[in-house]
Amino acid sequence: DHAFILKMQDTVKAAVDEVRFSQVIDQMREAAEAKITGDIPEVVELTSRKLKFTKDESSGILNHLIRDGDFSLYGLANAVTKHSQDRSGSSRIFRSYSESEALEPDQCRSRKEINLRNTP
């Protein structure tokens, strides 16, 4: 029956959307807990290099990160977002970051290496 199939499609879509939403929330929680304990400017520089940001963009991101004081991976993501909002025509910054896996703590090996290398 066609109505039953439509109802099944709606149920599956809702379940998938709910699962994806939960995954994003979990990623955000992990990112908030992933503290940057090493050299903050070096972490921003490595992230900028990975995502092909310019030196000016990297500097703006670092300024936002320091100003906001949230030295976590989530704080870094917010700094990228804020910097892209400050600059007209900088949707490339936000798009580049959001298309990457940079918010996923497991993908940030370079950040972890810096933290380990710079921890007393």
What does this structure look like?
By secondary structure, the protein is an all-alpha fold. It is built from six helices and no strands. It is elongated, with a radius of gyration of 18 Å. Mean pLDDT is 77; it is low at 102-107 and 109-120.
List keywords for this structure.
disordered C terminus; 0% strand; mainly alpha
State the helical fraction. Answer: over 70%
- SS class: mainly alpha
Low-confidence stretches: 102-107, 109-120
What's the main sheet like? none
Strand content: under 5%
Q: What's the layout of helices and strands?
A:
Elements: H1 2-33, H2 40-50, H3 55-68, H4 73-86, H5 91-99, H6 109-118
Helix pairs in contact: 2-3, 3-4, 4-5
Would you kindly provide a brief summary of this structure?
This protein has 120 residues and is mainly alpha-helical.
